[in-house]
Structures are given as structure tokens and as C-alpha cells.
Design brief:
The complex is a heterodimer of chains A (128) and B (213). Chain A is α+β, with helices and mostly antiparallel strands and 128 residues long. Chain A has helices spanning 31-50, 89-107, 123-127; strands at residues 4-10, 16-23, 57-64, 67-73, 79-84. Chain B is of the alpha+beta class. Chain B has a single domain (27-212), classed as Muramoyl-pentapeptide Carboxypeptidase, domain 2. Chain B has helices at residues 27-44, 48-73, 102-118, 161-173, 203-212, and strands spanning 76-79, 90-93, 124-127, 134-139, 178-185, 194-201. In chain B, the strands form two sheets. Chain B has a four-stranded antiparallel sheet with strand order 3-4-6-5. Chain B has a two-stranded antiparallel ribbon with strand order 1-2. In chain B, a hairpin with an 8-residue loop joins β5 (178-185) and β6. Classes of the chains: A alpha+beta (128), B alpha+beta (213).
Chain lengths: 128, 213
């Protein structure tokens, strides 16, 4: 099953600290930039939405063509944003939770630093 | 050969599971470490305000990390009233709730953070009478101050600035910027003064609270 997904971690101060593109579908050349653009545009929506609910997992907050943005906001207002075309909500939620745990562990090392180690984790997205 | 137990070695620190339970640390070890921290900073600064600021910054780093970890660990019981009032299910949810309201984050600091860091909830949480944006968390004696005595010539300096930094770190990371300071409040009939952590929230917090209703 061909899937495209773009994943970004944005800190509280709106600084991206991790980005990754993943997916088995063939990509156009500018797909990566387009995905980044869509995710950044969704940041405003997340900002407002984050204060209306105390849940961490916000799904389908924005759409672009057939791609959908889902966000997971941590307690420290770090946003884990995923741009995807699949509809597997549970899989995405568990993906976010696993990344959240990894993020907490890395957070102890240095606040707000860039994270390279999460690359291996994207294999989970492939399963979605 | 004596049977040796196999200890699971984690090659990568990230693979180690996030510890679930409470870890207790020796009080004397902490007191020693904290006294070294204060003494080290004392050699680096010229005045008391700078020393307080450094202790606060040290606490800030602790608070920011604390918030993420504790919110993740905390299990929350949701009480949902369904259509029929008689049927009220309770269910356990694996952590993952953020605090979005002022009172929520304050009681989180007062209970959960204090419990994990100091082994007990804080003595009291009060709202300031003079200003709308002031709140106070009081403690008969802060754990960090237990083995510290302040010489007279240091005036109003309080090593509780470290704890004030922790509180500021938690509040700031949760999106409630505030100025947090620690003060000694003399109590009648008691030899040692009580310590109060004074929290003064920024304008935007009050505006957002008003907007959320």
C-alpha cells in the first residue's frame, strides 16, 4: 500500500527540531517542500485548538487535497505534526505515543535541541 | 560456577523504558549536591541578586523536564456522565492530559509536582488578595532549605529561589508565563519563618483565562 507521510516536531517557540519524510509512494520533486509548507500553515490552527481541549491527540485538524494533518500536543506544548493520507487513527495515535516517549527521554538531555535519533522510528509509519 | 543473573544491557539510552515507579533518593546526597551548587554559584557572582537568578535558572531546567515527564506518568480518572444520569462510567486513561486552565496547572504544581519532588503536597495554595494575578504556595520549611542557614549580612536571600525556578519552569513550559519568587514570611509563635513561593502571572495568561471563560 503506497503511503506518503511527512512528520515534523515543533517546539513551544515554533522552532522545528525534527523533520522527516517517509512513504512508499513515488514522490514529485517539490513534494517535500510542499509538505513542509502545509504543516507550517497548520501551526496557527493548532495554536488555537490546543487551548480549547485538554486532550493531547488532535486528529484531522486540516486538509490539503487528499492529505490530512494530525497533531499531538505534549504537556510542554511541543507539537508532533503528521501529514498523511491514511485513515488509520489508532495506528497514528500509537505512533504519536511512542514518539512522545522517545521525545521525553531525549528532552532530558537538552531542552529544545534537534533530534536525529528518531529516524529509525519511522518504520512504524510504514505499517500504518 | 555461581549462577549469575542476566542484566539486560541497553546499548542505546533511548531504548531504556521510561521508569514508571517512584525513585527515592537519599536526602543527604541531595543536600550535599545542593550545597555544592550554592557554593559554586557563590564563587561566580558578585551580588545576591545574581546568585538568586542563577539558582532560579538551575531550577527552571528541572521544572521544564519535570512537566513533560509527570504529565506523561499521571493516570487520570475520567468521570463522564452519559445520557442517563444513573449510568456513570469511570475509566482509567493512560496519562496524556494537558492542563489548559490556570487553576488546573496551579493544583498540578501544588500537588503532583510537590509530591514527586519533595514527597508530600505543598502546605497551602492561596490566591493573592491585593492583585488578581498573584498566587502563593506556602511551605512550613522547604526541603532544600532544611540544612541551610542564611548569614545576617545576606539579607533577604532565600535558597528557595531554586524551587521558585522549578515552578517557573513548569508554568512557563505549560504556556503560563509568570514571575516566581521565594520569600520568607515570619510567623508569630514560630522560631523559623515560613517560606512562600509567590507566583505573578503575565498579562496574556489572564487575558486568555478570561477569554476561555
Amino acid at each position: 500500500m503506497a503511503t506518503t507521510a511527512s512528520f515534523i516536531i515543533v517546539s513551544r517557540n515554533d522552532i522545528p527540531i525534527y523533520e522527516a519524510e517517509v512513504g512508499s509512494a513515488t514522490k514529485r520533486e517539490d513534494a517535500a517542500q510542499l509538505h513542509q509548507f502545509v504543516l507550517h500553515a497548520a501551526l496557527d490552527i493548532v495554536q488555537d485548538l490546543a487551548w480549547t481541549t485538554s486532550a493531547m491527540f488532535l486528529k484531522n485538524i486540516d486538509r490539503f487535497n487528499d492529505l490530512v494533518v494530525s497533531v499531538y500536543v505534549t504537556a510542554g506544548h511541543t507539537r508532533l505534526m503528521l501529514l498523511h493520507d491514511s485513515r488509520n487513527d489508532d495506528g497514528i495515535k500509537s505512533f504519536f505515543q511512542e514518539v512522545h516517549e522517545l521525545y521525553i527521554k531525549v528532552n532530558f538531555l537538552q531542552l529544545g535541541c534537534s533530534v536525529h535519533v528518531l529516524v529509525f522510528h519511522l518504520s512504524i509509519v510504514e505499517k500504518n | 560456577m555461581i549462577g549469575a543473573s542476566k542484566i539486560k544491557q541497553y546499548s542505546n539510552v533511548l531504548e531504556k523504558p521510561l521508569s514508571k515507579g517512584k525513585q527515592e533518593v537519599s536526602l543527604s546526597a541531595f543536600a550535599f549536591l545542593f550545597s555544592e551548587l550554592v557554593q559554586y554559584n557563590q564563587t561566580q557572582v558578585d551580588n545576591i541578586a545574581e546568585l538568586e537568578r542563577r539558582l532560579e535558572d538551575a531550577g527552571y531546567a528541572v521544572g521544564a523536564r519535570c512537566l513533560e515527564l509527570l504529565c506523561h506518568r499521571e493516570k487520570v480518572y475520567h468521570i463522564i456522565v452519559k445520557l442517563c444520569v444513573m449510568f456513570m462510567p469511570f475509566w482509567l486513561s493512560q496519562g496524556n492530559r494537558r492542563e489548559t486552565r490556570l487553576l488546573g496547572i496551579l493544583s498540578f504544581v501544588h500537588s503532583t509536582v510537590w509530591k514527586v519532588l519533595f514527597g508530600k503536597v505543598a502546605d497551602s495554595l492561596e490566591k493573592g488578595t491585593e492583585h488578581e494575578d498573584e498566587y502563593m504556595i506556602s511551605e512550613k520549611e522547604l526541603l532544600v532549605n532544611r540544612f541551610i542557614s542564611i548569614p545576617k549580612d545576606m539579607g533577604t536571600f532565600n535558597c528557595g529561589a531554586f524551587v521558585a525556578g522549578i515552578v517557573r519552569g513548569v508554568l512557563d513550559s505549560a504556556g503560563f508565563p509568570a514571575v516566581v519568587t521565594a520569600h520568607f514570611v515570619p510567623m508569630e509563635g514560630q522560631q523559623r519563618p515560613r517560606t512562600t513561593i509567590l507566583i505573578k502571572f503575565a498579562e496574556e495568561v489572564l487575558r486568555r483565562e478570561a477569554r476561555l471563560g
